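pipeline stage [seq->struct] | target=Putative restriction endonuclease domain-containing protein | organism=Halochromatium glycolicum | residues=157
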Amino acid sequence: MQWSDVLNDPSLRDLPYKIELDALGRIVMSPASNRHGIQQAKLVQLLSRTFAEGEIATECSIGTHVGVKVADVVWMSPEFSRQHGDTTPYPQAPELCIEILSPSNSPTEIQDKVRIYLGYGAQEVWTLAEDGRISLFGPEGQRPASIFPGVTGDLRL
C-alpha cells in the first residue's frame, strides 16, 4: 500500500488511530487517547510561544526507507515549508520532530523513530513522557539542552 492509498481510502478516514505504513506497505495503527490529543495541543502552544517563524503541524507524515512514519508534532522552518509545501508525505523530516510516548510504545520503537527522524534530516527530536518530561535528542544521542534558540531550561508540560 502507498501513502496516497491510505489518504484516499474512505474506510480509514475516521479511525481513532494514528496510521503509519511499515517498509512493506502494511498499515500499522496506534490508538490515540484524549490525553495524547491534549498533549499535542500543549506542545503546539509551547512551540508557538518559542518559535517566531515557521510552521507547526500535528500528525506529520514522513516517507522513509522503512515506510511512512507520522510524527505527533513538528516545527518546520520557513525554508523547509517553501521547499516542501504541503507534499504528503514529506520526503525528509522537518527540523524538529516530537513523539508523545504512550504505554503502547516500546523503547525500541521510540529509539528507532528518533534515529529515523534524525537520519531523514531532523536537527532535533523530542520525546514527551507521560509525566510531562521532555527529552531532547540529536545525532550524538540525548542532549542536555536544545540547539534551538529560545528553548531553555528543563522542558516539561
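stage status: PASS
auto-comment: The CA atoms of residues 55 and 92 lie 15 Å apart. The chain has one domain: 33-143.
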